[in-house]
Write a structure and sequence with these properties.
The chain is of the alpha+beta class and about 170 residues long. It has one domain. The protein has a four-stranded mixed beta sheet with strand order 2-1-3-4, covered by helices on one side. The longest helix has 30 residues.
Length: about 170
């Protein structure tokens, strides 16, 4: 079975076209990708699981490495979740690169999905970021919580846009 639709979207701009062997619908977005429909599903699931496992391990190691570097910072600076910020910003950038590469045909949609959903989906962590923001606010650090929330949101969007541009530029035919 071959996909009839590939939708790549960023900030409301969609690019349609392309064929994806073995998948009935594939949607790639800035924040990841989702494979819908019938496909040789178990192969896709296995690839996503392996990539997700690698992404989770990478997140853990990168987070530990970053947090280990902030030990000499002031107590206020140590309260910032630098590890989570680092993995989410790198992940947003790489998701943008992958989406840009898929959009211009430089990366297959299935590899884009494995990278976006599998590796980067496990590497980045929205839920941990939100819990850390709530913890800061509940701990009386409301300004810091607002700064972490809004600052990382703005930086993440910027990283994704930059990645999208670089991915489309590097992989353009």
């Amino acid at each position: 079975m071959t996909a009839s639709v590939l939708g790549v979207s960023f900030l409301g701009v969609s690019l349609m076209g392309a064929s994806v062997p073995g998948v009935s619908l594939l949607e790639v977005s800035l924040l990841g990708a989702s494979v819908l429909g019938t496909a040789p599903l178990w192969g896709s699931v296995l690839a996503l699981a392996v990539a997700g496992g690698a992404g989770a391990v990478a997140r853990y190691l990168v987070d530990l490495w970053i947090q280990g570097r902030v030990g000499s910072f002031s107590p206020e600076a140590r309260a910032v979740p630098w590890g989570t910020a680092g993995v989410n910003l790198v992940g947003a950038f790489l998701a943008g690169v992958a989406a840009g590469a898929v959009a211009v045909g430089g990366l297959s949609a299935s590899l884009g999905a494995i990278a976006g959903v599998g590796f980067l989906g496990a590497f980045t962590t929205f839920s941990t970021w939100m819990v850390q923001v709530v913890d800061l606010a509940e701990g009386g650090r409301r300004r810091l919580a607002a700064g972490v929330l809004m600052g990382l949101l703005a930086l993440g969007i910027g990283a994704a846009v930059l990645g999208l541009w670089i991915g489309a530029s590097l992989f353009a035919p």
